Amino acid sequence: MNFKYAFILLLIMSPSYQNIAQDLTQSRTPNIVFLLVDDLGWSDVGYQSGRFHTPHIDQLASEGAVFSNAYATSPVCSPSRASIITGKYPTRLGINSHIPSLHKSWQNGRPPGGQEYSTESGLPTRNWLPKDQPSLARALKSHDYYTGFIGKWHLGHEPFYPQQHGFDWQMGITNFGQPPSYYAPYERERYDEILRIEELATDARPEEYLWHPETGIEQFLDLSIDPEEINDLSRVSEEKKRIEL
Known about the structure:
By secondary structure, the chain is an alpha/beta fold. The chain contains eight helices and nine strands.
């Protein structure tokens, strides 16, 4: 059975998602995998330099299309992500800088007093992506995709998570723009306190799998995704027939 997948990880860019809807109406619906990596250098993938071993990314490049000249709407994570999700310039959304979720005044990644705007990053910026904005997930769902999101969100705390923006499924989402550490138990010292994001542990494999069973070495964060979560997604795919993640 040939399922249709579109998998947005951690986040196909178009000036307008109306164009996506039109394209999908006129042609066969494709599988979509969107990988968004913060601070990825030009030479940080194998097909560009050979410096790093990235065989799966290299295969995507060899079997697909590589676009080597493009512009981002912002060099900062939250504004650029807001643009990708909505198809709008970040200034139209009021998201001008990264959402300062790790600032000392924030409560576990939630803005103090539920305030809509912050200036801790140096620029007035909205603390979440408004739920009434258009989204890539909704555009694709209108064409029978099942939508999902894995990893870094950084567009607001719980009331503004991906599922509030049209995604059917989410995994590994936290209130923060980055984990305290990429190794189990995902914690570090901050402001004379230990910062540990519990969601990373609960969304990861059971505790005994946070360390390699043979070496005892802490596992890197992306290796600790619970395989049962992915199996659940596969079961959904058999019912929905098309998936967009």
